[in-house]
Backbone:
């Protein structure tokens, strides 16, 4: 029976801890990810919209407020919540004006005074005697007086209480007038402490990043390929590429690993196991006698050269992203200094990477759960800190899904606490749940399956998942159109038009996209038929290029990046919707102007209605903390209603049409969502092709499009009215 | 800066507490309600299916198990989980064989030994030397030996380790054979302690009720109306009704309040404010000089009479449900004994109920947050305990949404801890979120909007919400077809056929339904046109009835309740699906045999495939607790795979057709979901109308139905093959 009693005790404790006595129910608070286990993501300047279901027994009027805390804040700030009858839900909004980790939660309470006033009014209208009600009101006001210690508020409250009580001198009509006085609610909201203040049981985190975390065009290139033909490039020759890259309109230049490259089992050209003596090896086999993850491959230059490269990039408005590849060549200093950080085999050797029966003898994986876990994790973290101290703020993380997830969560958090501006880009190509898991635990942005989504249906389904499902709260896809590892067969077989199609899709479907150099030269020869590997892959050898070679698509790249910078609609990720096209080879989608989606409009209508209907709800929504069950939280004056209303649409709606067939002209009728765009049934409107400058006058829903891949693969149509 | 540092500390703590170092990720565990804040509901004997997303870095094989705990258990029991590649998810199942509060959670770990074996096999197949691998294997086996202290397991492990190490005497081929030995995995699963055992961070509760909580036909009647004409009924005369009610096939008889009725502001007939001296008043105005919620209205008899009534009902297989209405008449003993439990007005009077400007002076609401909260809550709880001590196990709770939600959560939990067989039925007619909130916090079953859902579309949408959304996890709707408060206009205008239609819908759409007496006599006169109140409502006066009066639908009731008891498909709530009917006046739905839904079939296929494919996954799934991060949990031997497989379908599929038009014959073609039912395109099948005994041979999808409301309002077709 002892065990039975113990079980009952434990069960009771579990129930108790899950419960607590909550006066009001607060649930379904949004945005919330996995029960607040992980933060949702926003960028600085975003308006965060918060929703909550709030109720209690009976018919009392309720009030609620949002509590939010910026990074470094000690106190909560507050904003009033407004109630929407149709959805039976409360809403508020606040602007995240600083990067870092924010928190928010919700409080609610019974608006006792407003409930009383509402009842009083109805009773008076029905001609009932309300003497007792007036005395009840004055009792509430006298409670408020106790907390209004000084000044005109105290005086006004005292006067009101006295008037409501003054049966002898004042008529009931006059006393009722005083009770229904316009100024009382605000005073009572400020000084009357709710007895049932209830706080939502969780504090919900938000990671607020800088803008580049959500909107950027990336350009990947190997600095060692930047030299004059026949020579190993250096940071100085790489710096000479920066003007070209900046002119193409990119925001980020990403360099594959720049560290000393292992010699043992070095890979030869085209991934052969027998290298020539002058083969440069794969930069992802990191470490040799010159150092490891914090050293520079001597052929590229020195750390000073690197610093100069970074300064030059920054001066051109380019940000430098480094590769972070947590694996070691057999020649990495850690192998001798910390063999315990690796897996030791029975013969004392260190285990190389393998995927049986394949062996990767040039790579030693780290053992993230070794006995010196702390030492190893700190060292891995310090690699980031080293490059951060050299001006790097963005890291493309190689294969994070092959390293301990707990390590990433700890490491990203640890770094962002000191450096909230650091961006982590997960290069994980694995099953969706693991890719999402990495994004949840902290990766700022993520590679995607984009290269393998080539039909209209595939693109639509995938982009809708990234933009319109809860995934959009935390997973920022970066649509790389190619990588040194991925040359998709669509590019192999589609020729130059295919590159233009994929560029246009990558750069307009989502605000983050990238290319790996050579894409603009339409390089598309695989190492063998059916392979996604490039022939003479730059991973294993230097590749000297003429970036003005005939057939390049530099003009397309430059124009696209210009448009992305000038059109706010291309800088958002949740504003894409697909619309019917009669020809499945032609994809048709809208990028809505900021604030121009159906949800944006509904929100504006809701908030306008509420602020108009009942200003009291807003002003009454911020009592000083009281002796309620949840204790008193310090409160600032309520925010003005203006803060709640998202700004009206900015920028223009874009309609984008892409011919997915790189071989043949295609035409179709497209169905423009004029209802959502506020355009009348027969109203003409001008669509302005930002790619060519051409203007067309369209009318109504259905309009005709024809695209010949030899001349133009798509339209980016700005809707002008 | 001090505040900034404090904020950072706090923020770090918050992050820390949310994190912990988890070796594996375990998420999206189901069934889970609001992040385990509330229990999901099941009935005894149910197979609970558990799912979880589980992953970690890299390519290792994983293993997982379900931990579950019955009420009173101190230790966890375990069941293996199986992996489904298509959904990238793990599954397990366990049977809840006892009522009360269960808990479950999930553990996962790396199956190091199986990963090693799989690699070994591939290397051997590729002709690689595996000497080091064999030594690694023997090292693992020797680790297991340390925990296998005695007996044949220890001997077998020692022998295997020695063989793997024996380079001198054994050929590598022989050593590999020993390593791939069929018996090793089971031994290693039992004795090799995982180093990364990870437990899901929540323990998920399940409320397991007895069967009546999910399947019952309710009959409501006023015992005071059971007397001979002109006389106040008693428990003895009420007991005489029990045989009739049992013969009609009901499972529960529910009595409106049986307590002394208040005298102050007693309501007269038809809810008038001026009662005649002999008016009996509303039984929901509880309490007078004879007592309150634990007393019996003297006109009905004594507590002994009540006990006898309960015994008589039970002997007939009927359960007695009492009304629990937490409100007091001004004459209730609590008003004088505990005036502090009510709201006191400035003149010292107790506040009556009101909905301004309406006054309900016959009712004093309780103040659930009064200073003597504990005293009041205990007293309210003790009312339940009193009736429980008199054999009552089911309570219909009047207007729970007007009492503190925190009270209900505490009270239901407190009672069910001692009496897990007690059923609480929430009579809340309010907005959906509040109704659902009451179900979440503990109410066993709930009233619904059924009476107002009369068109096919309304019925379909509503039933799909209750049966096919997450709501089905916790909200058990009881489809009362009428109540003393609700006479829907469909009944007013539809005549006898309307009653037959609504009876058939109520009793077949969901497994819980009820009627209030008079329904079977098709009573349908409202107090005034457009009102949902009955004329001469039994709430305010006695109503003597002839239950065999012409026009009764006793035969329909009796037949329906018989079918409900004989057909398992009518005893489930998640197995209803709607199917096309060409005429919107005819509703067509299927109640699938237990285990015959599409989900049931998918599950069987999954589990069959997995158990066939890889028996090792199952046997390897239950290691003894080890020194892993989460400590060792005691483990029972893995359940046999048979437990995982839901039993094959039991009972028959039912196809139900109802003519919603009570006035005119209607006919239609219905579309039978033969694909889901495993019937071939042109295969004939017999449908047996359980209402009439008629048999029809149908073929393929589309079949013809005609229903004339004067004779037959619907079919309940048992599909017989």
Residues:
């Amino acid at each position: 029976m002892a065990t039975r009693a113990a079980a009952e005790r434990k069960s009771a404790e579990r129930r108790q801890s899950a419960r607590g006595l909550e006066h009001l129910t607060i649930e379904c608070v949004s945005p919330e990810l996995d029960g607040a286990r992980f933060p949702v993501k926003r960028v600085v300047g975003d308006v965060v919209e918060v929703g909550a279901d709030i109720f209690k027994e009976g018919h009392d009027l309720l009030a609620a407020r949002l509590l939010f805390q910026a990074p470094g804040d000690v106190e909560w700030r507050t904003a009033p919540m407004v109630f929407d009858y149709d959805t039976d839900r409360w809403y508020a909004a606040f602007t995240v004006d600083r990067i870092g980790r924010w928190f928010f939660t919700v409080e609610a309470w019974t608006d006792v005074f407003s409930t009383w006033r509402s009842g009083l009014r109805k009773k008076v209208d029905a001609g009932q005697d309300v003497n007792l009600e007036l005395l009840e009101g004055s009792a509430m006001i006298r409670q408020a007086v106790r907390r209004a210690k000084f000044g005109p508020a105290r005086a006004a409250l005292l006067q009101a209480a006295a008037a409501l009580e003054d049966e002898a001198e004042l008529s009931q009509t006059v006393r009722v007038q005083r009770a229904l006085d316009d100024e009382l609610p605000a005073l009572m909201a400020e000084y009357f402490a709710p007895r049932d203040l209830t706080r939502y049981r969780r504090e919900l985190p938000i990671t607020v990043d800088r803008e580049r975390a959500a909107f950027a065009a990336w350009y990947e290139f190997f600095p060692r390929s930047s030299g004059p033909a026949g020579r190993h490039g250096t940071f100085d020759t790489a710096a000479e590429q920066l003007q070209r890259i900046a002119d193409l309109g990119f925001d980020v230049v990403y360099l594959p690993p720049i560290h000393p490259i292992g010699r043992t089992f070095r890979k030869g050209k085209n991934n052969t196991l027998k290298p020539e003596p002058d083969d440069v090896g794969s930069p992802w086999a990191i470490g040799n006698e010159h150092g490891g993850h914090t050293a520079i491959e001597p052929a590229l230059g020195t750390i000073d050269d690197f610093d100069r490269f970074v300064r030059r990039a920054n001066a051109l408005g380019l940000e430098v992203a480094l590769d972070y590849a947590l694996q070691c060549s057999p020649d990495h200093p850690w192998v001798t200094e910390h063999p315990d950080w690796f897996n030791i085999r029975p013969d004392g050797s260190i285990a190389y990477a393998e995927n049986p029966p394949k062996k990767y003898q040039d790579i030693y994986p780290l053992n993230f759960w070794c006995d010196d876990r702390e030492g190893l994790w700190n060292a891995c973290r310090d690699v980031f800190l080293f490059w951060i101290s050299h001006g790097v703020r963005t890291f493309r993380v190689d294969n994070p899904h092959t390293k301990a997830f707990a390590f990433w969560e700890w490491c990203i958090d640890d770094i962002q606490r000191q450096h909230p501006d650091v961006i982590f880009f997960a290069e994980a190509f694995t099953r969706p749940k693991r890719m999402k898991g990495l994004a949840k635990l902290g990766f700022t942005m993520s590679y995607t399956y984009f290269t393998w989504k080539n039909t209209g249906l595939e693109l639509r389904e995938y982009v809708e998942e990234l933009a319109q499902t809860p995934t959009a709260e935390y997973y920022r896809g970066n649509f790389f159109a190619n990588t040194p590892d991925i040359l998709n067969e669509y590019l192999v077989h589609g020729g130059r038009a295919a590159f233009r199609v994929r560029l246009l899709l990558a750069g307009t479907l989502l605000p983050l996209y990238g290319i790996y150099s050579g894409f603009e030269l339409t390089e598309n020869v695989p190492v063998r038929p059916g392979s996604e590997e490039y022939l003479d892959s730059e991973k294993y050898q230097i590749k000297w290029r003429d970036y003005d070679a005939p057939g390049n698509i530099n003009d397309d790249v430059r124009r696209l990046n210009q448009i992305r910078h000038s059109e706010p609609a291309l800088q958002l990720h949740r504003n894409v919707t697909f619309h019917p096209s009669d020809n499945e080879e032609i994809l048709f989608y809208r990028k809505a102007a900021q604030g121009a989606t159906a949800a944006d409009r509904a929100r504006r209508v809701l908030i306008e209605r509420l602020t108009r209907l009942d200003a009291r709800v807003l002003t009454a929504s911020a009592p000083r903390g009281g002796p309620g069950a949840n204790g008193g939280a310090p409160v600032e004056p309520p925010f003005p209603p203006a803060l709640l209303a998202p700004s009206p649409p900015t920028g223009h709606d874009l309609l984008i049409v892409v011919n997915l067939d790189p071989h043949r002209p295609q035409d179709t009728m497209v169905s423009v969502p004029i209802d959502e765009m506020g355009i009348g049934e027969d109203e003409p409107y001008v669509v302005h092709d930002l790619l060519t400058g051409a203007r067309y006058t369209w009318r109504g829903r259905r309009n005709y499009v024809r695209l010949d891949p030899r001349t133009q693969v798509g339209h980016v149509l700005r809707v002008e009215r």
Observations:
- The two ends of chain B are 80 Å apart (CA to CA).
